[in-house]
């Protein structure tokens, strides 16, 4: 079943995930939540050269934060950096080139970052990938799984020691409401069985991100973890991966700034960390990770097994 044929999810989306949904929700936002300076704090943002990632980087740069942009394309990253420096007046913006689908390189990057930098206050796992057909990386892993799931696991696990010794550490994962139509499935992580439907594989990865966040929060109690749905946002990624959806919904899609609002709120506000770690957010509010009467719940045993599988895969490609 295609993601957009799930009527309960789609109706919820039409009311909440659109630009109008954001405008309605924003009426309850507290202005002073974001009236903060984050000078002296450092933020790593993956996929920071366009869309939600760039909007978040810009907002944080304007508040004085040091921003580490982790991007795949050097030219696009340098162009985005120049825009951010020019508009924010903040020169503490650094570009790191990394293809998150290259699993060994994710380990190498994280380990090198720890050696070079003494502090990291906030990790924002924003980069994502929707594939139209199944493809594998050099390590033989399905590429979108490598980007959407395993790279987040590796980057977060590797950077935990650096985060833990930095004041007020936070980890944020940018997920998607698409996960509401998916139950955690651990028997086909590489999407080898059945027909490959890129949007449903993506939605499954987004469910896996929810479970990962909840499990990380239990294990690493000194760090505040959160995962969020940005709504339906007009980004290059959506236009490329879902052209029909983008075309039909274009007038209703949120701007990248609106999509990034909760990311920034989770990253910089003092009030956001008064909520328990491991929660799922939409428009600055904790929301359920399941639709009403949903069949999408998984058992603690399945969730622990999933984390064990990620650990095994991650270790397999770790540089020694």
UniProtKB/TrEMBL annotation:
Lineage: superkingdom: Eukaryota
A Pfam short name: adh_short
Protein's UniProt name: Dehydrogenase/reductase 12-like a
